[in-house]
Amino acid sequence: MIVVTNRIKVKKGMAAALAPRFTRPSGLDTMDGFIRVEVLLTQNIEEHDEMNVNMYWEDMKSFQAWRESDDFKASHSRPASSEAGESPMLGSEILTYEVASVKERA
User: Which domains occur in the chain, in start order?
Assistant: First the structure.
């Protein structure tokens, strides 16, 4: 299993409103190898908000298939400039992890 984290910096006060966009129903729900997505809001940052969007996948091949899918492209497309307004995004970074060990409540 792998975890792909999109660490996203957004304008102060925007993260809580943006977080549900990452967990609403979408084509992601039916992608082979998709396990789950969770959004974590980083605490105690004064300059901006930060979200960590963690996507759990069975393997890297499944994640790459998502990245190349039409659903991914549609979900990451920007609206036309007349509709866009000012973006709350300040930057992002993709981090990839292999899950080495897990313990869950019995």
Answer: 2-73+88-98 (3.30.70.100)
